[in-house]
Amino acid sequence: MAQFKTLNISKLLYESMRAYHSVNTAGQLSFLYKFALCCVYPLQAYFNQFDLWRRRELLIANCKWQIGQLTNVLNMLYDPISKRIYINQNSSGYVFAPNIDDANSDIFAPNIDDTNSNIYLSNINDDPLIGSIVSIYIPIAIYSVSLAQIISDIEQIKLSGIQYQIIPF
Fold first, then answer.
1. What is the secondary structure of 130-154 as a DSSP string?
2. What is the pTM of this model?
């Protein structure tokens, strides 16, 4: 993950004013430095908030729609201590398995040289295979407080066409 530059107002001011204006002859901070620091130091809190926001957005932007990575990101953002958020995806689709060494495995592609194989082919009038719904389980304490933010983060991460549901437990 890319490293952002952090900004420390007191060090930035010291580097800008240099030691000539920041330190007096007694080796203490000068009144000019103290006054300038009092004027610009309230900006440090706003920069810290901005820094937290951009790190959070970078974490979300770098997350891929993989169950393990999505689980880790959601736990890091919403439940960093207990890590109770988990994801379940029941695949209701067919499994494509190749016919390995004629071990009488069930396959979806017909064998050209074998006429008595167990082949499962869909009919033309069958319903199309619809992907399964991803279930995201979130503790009720987190669900009731930050549901809108969780949905917003998941919508930024998810791929188009993927269906999911958030289930409180």
1. PPPPEEEEE-HHHHHHHHHHHHHHH
2. 0.61
